[in-house]
Every structure is written in C-alpha cells, then in structure tokens.
Amino acid sequence: MKIYNTLTRQKEDFVPQKPGTARIYACGPTVYDYIHIGNARPLVVFDVLRRFLAYRGYDVRFVQNFTDIDDKIIRRANEHGVDSAAIAEEYIGEYWKDAKGLALQEATVHPRATENIEQIIEIVSGLIAKGIAYEAQGDVYYSPAKFAEYGKLSHQPLDELVAGARIMTGEIKREPMDFALWKAAKPGEPYWESPWGNGRPGWHIECSAMVLRYLGETADIHCGGQDLIFPHHENEIAQSEAYTGKPFSRYWMHNGYININNAKMSKSKGNFFTVRQVAEKYGYAPIRFFLISSHYRSPINYTPELLDSSIASLQRLQNCRDNLIFAKKNAALPEKDGDLQTLLHLETHRESFIAALDDDLNTADALGALFELVREINTRVLDAEPSKRLCKAALKLFAELCGVLGILQPAEAAAESAADDETAKIEALITARGEARTAKSWAEADRIRDELNAMGVVIEDTPLGVKWTVKR
Questions:
Q1: Taking a C-beta distance cutoff of 8 angstroms, is the pair 156, 195 a contact?
Q2: What is the rounded average pLDDT for all residues in the chain?
C-alpha cells in the first residue's frame, strides 16, 4: 500500500515498524456537542483504512480518543449549569449513537484524556527537566524555539509562524509561539493536582500522552482532519519527540475539508449540519457512502442532491444483493459448466478494488470497481439462470468488498435481527396467495397482496417463483 505522507508531501510505501502489524492513532471528537458532517469525514475515512489493512492481513491496533476536558466543554457546562464531566458523558453517549449509524467499528481502545492525567504530568515534568518547557504561575508552557524541527509537518518555518502569533491579554507565556501544556485552575473549573498546583492539561499534550501509552513511542500512522495539521499535530510532534527523542509517527494522513454548497461550513453562515440532523432526513448509510465517494484528500462538497445520489447508488447495490440471495435460493442446479470461468472473471474486480485502496486509500476508485462488479453480476450471473454455486460465490465476493467499505452493514444487521415470526408470517401469506391464485380465487389473492403491501412487503412474480423484499 502507498500512503501520501503529509510529513514528506509524497506517496510512500507503507512499511510498519513490525511486519504484519499496524498501529494507528486517529484524533477523535471533543465531546461538547453532536458530531457534524466535517467531524464525520475522518471518522468514516479512517474506519475504511482500518478495515482495509485488516482485510489485507495486518494485525491492526486502532486507537481513537475522546477529548473530554477542554475549554469548549467547560463553557458548555457553565451554560447549562452542570458539571463538565456530565457534558462529556452525555455527548460520548450521543457519539456512540451516530457511530453505530455510520457503521464505525469500535476502536481497539477509546481512551479519554481524563483517564491519562498521570501520563500527562509525567511528560510535562520531563519536558521541564529538559529545559524545553517552563512553569509560570501554575501554567506550564512549551517553547517551540527550542525544538529545531518545529514546523516540519505544516512546512512552515518558525520565523513565519512567529510573525502571525500574539500574546493574548491574560497570558503569561514568554514568547508568542509558546503553547500551554498545563493550565492553572480558574475558579469553578475542574482540576487535578500537579507539581505546579491544581490545574488541567492543554489539548495537544493529551493526544501525545495517549499515543505514548497505547501505541508506544512511535506510531505507524497518525491521522485526522486537515485542520489539525497546525497547530495540533505540529505541537504533538514537537512535545513528543522532544520528550522521547524518537519519531512520533512514521506516516501522517489528513483528509480534506467539506464545503456546504461550495461554501465553507460555518455556524455563522447558517450552513452548519450535524450528522444527526442529516441522518433524520436521509438516514446514516447515505452519509457514509457520500463521505467515501471522493478521494479522502480532496475537498468534498455537500449538497442535498449528492445525498439523493448516494441513496440511489446504495439502492442499486441493495438490489444486486437481494437478487443474488433470491437467485441462490431458487437456483435449480447446484453448479453448471462455465461457473469457474465466470468466477475468475469476477475476481478481476476484486483485484481492481484492492489496487484502488492500495493507492493511497482511493475509495472513489474502489467504489468504481464495486459497481463494475455489480454490472458483471447482473449480466453474467443473474441474467443467465445461474447455479447455486455461482450465486453463493458472487454473493460472498460482493459482501466482502462492501464490508471493507463498511456499506450495507446496518441493513444487513437489521435483516439478520428481524423477528423469525414476522418472516414466517410473510412466507405464509405468500404461500396462501399462491394457493388462491391456483384456485383462481383472484379476490383473495388481491386481498393478500394488499395485506403484504401494508406491511411494506413488495412481491414480484418471476419464472423462478415469488421474490419478496421489505421496503427500506
């Protein structure tokens, strides 16, 4: 696999530190509100990365954090007159609802910043001991000027960064570029005891501590949104590498921005959408499909029309799967001449699918390969009175590729968890309708069909028997 490395600005072969393993850290949400469409893009994109590496045989350790102590969380808690921990807990719960809808796999570890205070204090103490950080009235600041490679991720020289930096009113740092590792507690804020007095960690040091604790001194891949390159990821590198003396991550992956109707998403412009809001209108599956329909590094434009297009594309995939299931159930022959040749032809689309994702996680081309497979299944399998063997193999390949992309998964789970008695009722009604038709009791047959329609069941009479599906 080749990955575009933000650090080197070029595609590189993915070579993990330990063969056959992949240690990945993905920056997770700050839990003070529902996740929005922009938050969802890295969550979905890097979920596909994790799925694909596992599919290719890697033992993947995937760490995605929750930032559960932050200025925004404290501000929201004060607005609602509750404890900041209550706000964090509430929106972690809301995150899991959206994550399930978006078919996000649970990470190997979902650490919280507040669970890693001891590790944070240890790193901050080490940086002070090295003379790279300093304490000032209970705050602790990091000095980027003392880290020679500062700016190597964002590719901005320190002097250019300093030119745009300011010391804000109330700040007691020495230089404009210095950033907080530890913040002294203000009245009414949550705090933890430390060598510098009661306080709480800065944002950047939280992620450094969690990477070091759960992945070691050097991660294989660190990923997140493009907006995190500077200052968040730049500062993570500076403080972590100054502390350990080792590279913080071998590869850095960043996804592009989402625009709303060709304009930057902004609450002030009124074009700000949460995943929950969009899902209430379109469902979750089209959101996931939309987010992987473009290459992850490209900017992507959100419009209602693109969500409608995603729904139509998913329906095409759903129809292919349902038709394969039906054909397998009703195929007359266990196998027939030509099955092997057809299967070998279908396998070429797996190869194209893998090649697309091997090329810097090109999900757009991977989807193209999947739809080519659908076209071939429709023409070479479903239109040719297929055998059970061929239908089963085609269905397995189709489900395999969908699984790597994480699409059709919620519908699959819903179908599997449907009550057996309801399925039995549908089958019984279809059998009764068939008997009524045989007896030329047309009124009774029509009545049963109306009852099935009322249940959301769509029936289709085919040469192989009655095909039925439930409207989604």
A1: no
A2: 91
Cis check: omega of the bond before 231, within 30 degrees of 0: yes
* Cα 439 from Cα 201, distance rounded (Å): 78
pLDDT given at position 449: 86
Check whether 137 has a pLDDT greater than 60. yes
Distance CA 354, CA 55 (A): 10
Residue in this structure with the two tokens 């179908």, named with its chain if needed: 415
CA distance 281 to 301: 18
Residue 378 CA, chain-centre distance (Å), reads: 30
Q: How many angstroms separate the Cα of 406 from the Cα of each of 104, 166, 323, 394, 400? A: 8, 44, 20, 18, 10
Q: What is the DSSP letter of 95?
A: H
Rounded distance between C-alpha atoms, residue 31 and residue 85, angstroms? 10
Q: What is the pLDDT of residues 251-305, one digit of tens each?
A: 999 999 999 888 877 666 777 899 999 999 999 999 999 999 999 999 999 999 9
Nearest to 3 by CA among 233, 252, 237, 248: 252
Structure tokens at 46: 């890097």
Residues 6+ away with beta carbon under 8 Å from 471: 456, 457, 458
Which has the higher per-residue pLDDT, 418 or 341? 341
- φ, ψ of residue 108 in degrees (nearest 5): -60, -40
At 418 the pLDDT is 41
**Is-contact 174 141, C-beta < 8 A?**
yes
Domains annotated for the chain, with CATH where assigned, are: 2-255 (3.40.50.620), 304-417 (1.20.120.640), 420-470 (no CATH)
On the 0-12 / 13-18 / 19+ scale of CB atoms within 10 A, 77 is buried
- For the four alpha carbons of 169, 173, 177 and 183, in that order, the dihedral sign comes to negative
What confidence tens digit (pLDDT) does each residue in 332-366 have?
889 989 999 999 999 999 999 999 999 999 999 99
Terminal-residue alpha carbon distance, the chain: 36
| Separation of alpha carbons 267 and 232, rounded Å | 22
Q: Which residues are CB-neighbours of 247 under 8 A, at least 6 positions away?
A: 218, 241
Instruction: For residues 391-420, give the mean pLDDT.
Output: 74
What tokens does 339 get?
């099955």
CB 250 within 8 A of CB 220: yes
Classify the phi-psi angles of 426: left when phi > 0, otherwise alpha if psi is within -120 to 50, otherwise beta: alpha
Helical pair 284-292 and 409-417, crossing angle rounded to 10 deg: 150
Strands 199-201 and 179-184: antiparallel
Q: Are 236 and 207 in contact (CB under 8 A)?
A: yes
